């Protein structure tokens, strides 16, 4: 038995997801060379600074005024999983934690009872384009976990498991396991209070790269588990006899396995799976709670406390150019990768 196709959606900037996920933002920017201050060499005179989502010349500044990115902003009541396949991200937060990660790394942040953080995209290369390609997945937290302490965890590219599968014709598919299990390979542990930390919730987050003409299988899941496949680059694929063009996602029905066949070009996918939380979701920007009253309480709390305040000199804080990939956690623990 093969799972049926429940729904097909066109992909925009924010991708529609199923419970327990809230959405996925997909960023793909071909930034120009950087200046010594990490800003674009081409200048910013024609951009709507502070709110540039234009994609002009193949890139956006987003909310950054000098360096692209997202200056200090609050999160509460959910988790972010930031997968950076190309480029680097400078993280700073209200707990005093910081880091620079990317080019294959993943950051898993449980906002819980509240945190402020910034995510800036420093243009470190002065001689060639600074490409950025990242996915940021918003994963909900159940009501019982919405007040857990904020925490972030780094999953460095050198440590993330990659499963390689070949079909009957020898065509290869790679599965980068950010959460969940495939055959005998298990992803790294999620953040400690994460919804994904309980295997009963069957949370899986995979990046899948398949050769042209390859066939691969998504395994069967437990009863009630939802799953979606996001086909973000390629030509076309075939699932259950139906052709699907790139930049579409597929939601699956039933629990059976799913067979996917790529066309004349390689296929690139994000796969999300998990048991629904099935609680009311009330969202107000970066606050995700279960009722309007809880949203009002969250906003008032942020206005009163700033979730610990901002310990950095700028809301658009970036790290020194010469620093490689690193993370400094709220408890002072430091990881240095290069």
From TrEMBL:
Keyword Cytoplasm annotated: no
Database matches in InterPro entries: Pirin, Pirin_C_dom, Pirin_N_dom, RmlC-like_jellyroll, RmlC_Cupin_sf
Residues where Fe cation binds: 73, 75, 117, 119
GO terms, molecular function: metal ion binding
Gene3D superfamilies referenced in this protein's UniProt entry, alphabetically: Jelly Rolls
Domain of life assignment: Bacteria
Keywords per UniProt: Iron, Metal-binding
Residues in Pirin N-terminal domain copies: 62-139
Pfam families: Pirin, Pirin_C
Segments forming domain Pirin C-terminal: 208-308
Cofactors (names): Fe cation
Cofactor note: Binds 1 Fe cation per subunit.
Family: Belongs to the pirin family.
Protein name per its UniProtKB record: Pirin
